[in-house]
Amino acid sequence: MSAEEPLFRVVRGVPTAEELAALVGAIVVRTRPTAAPAPVAVSQWARSARPASAGLAARPGAWRASGLPR
């Protein structure tokens, strides 16, 4: 692609400057690479409210074992 060649062209209609600006903005946003979202840090307070089900498997009596001290 040469420096003189346009990136896109309007093939029908006569867009206004505002419409062209909106089109360019939409193209730039869609072609920009996205970064992976940062992992959310869970506070110790929030973590304490979660059930401690590590190591418990779905098996007969698991509900009873979940309430027993470890």
Portion in strands: under 5%
Largest sheet: none
Write the element-wise H/E pattern from the N-terminal end onward.
Answer: HHH
The average pLDDT value, as a whole number, equals 79
- Beta strands, count: 0
If you compute it from the alpha carbons, what radius of gyration comes out, rounded to the nearest whole angstrom? Answer: 28 Å
Q: Can you put this structure into words, describing what you see?
A:
The chain has helices spanning 17-31, 44-48, 62-65. The chain is mainly alpha-helical. The radius of gyration is 28 Å and the shape is rod-shaped.
Short description:
The protein is an all-alpha fold and 70 residues long. It has helices spanning 17-31, 44-48, 62-65.
